[in-house]
Amino acid sequence: MRRVEAGERAEVTVEIDGRRETASVDARTNLADFARGVGATSVRVGCEQGVCGSCTVMLDDMSVRSCLVLAVQADGSRVETLAGIGGRIDELRAAFARHFALQCGFCASGILVTAAEWLAGDPVVDEAEVRRMLSANVCRCTGYEGMVRAILEVASSGT
Fold first, then answer.
1. CA triplet 56, 75, 4: central angle to 5 degrees?
2. Same domain membership, residue 99 and residue 57
3. What's the predicted TM-score (pTM) here?
């Protein structure tokens, strides 16, 4: 990783949802702000401390809190947001709608990205494990019952 001092600018290139994006950023710009600045509006910024999970994206196939990753750290990497993630995301979205798992939708991106990663990892599928996985994300509107039911439904469908 190259060294960039505070106050300096750096040109950063990241593949976001299949598009190559380059921008000149301050050394302290986080990945969430970079992504939003190049049009990836499904990335939400909630707490800016890595606690709420709203900014969760996939960085080279691993979920990260994009508010805690500097854009310069992601230079040359591949980022997938909710808008570009593959896997079972469409099944999850439909199940979340069926189970009324979301209200305001602010947390949705991070929760759906987290759930898609979890499903891709061949998880132990039971309610306790789903609740453990969801505990990394904060939803202030719904509680988690609908989300748990939706994720269990998709996990048990096995497709």
1. 110
2. no
3. 0.89
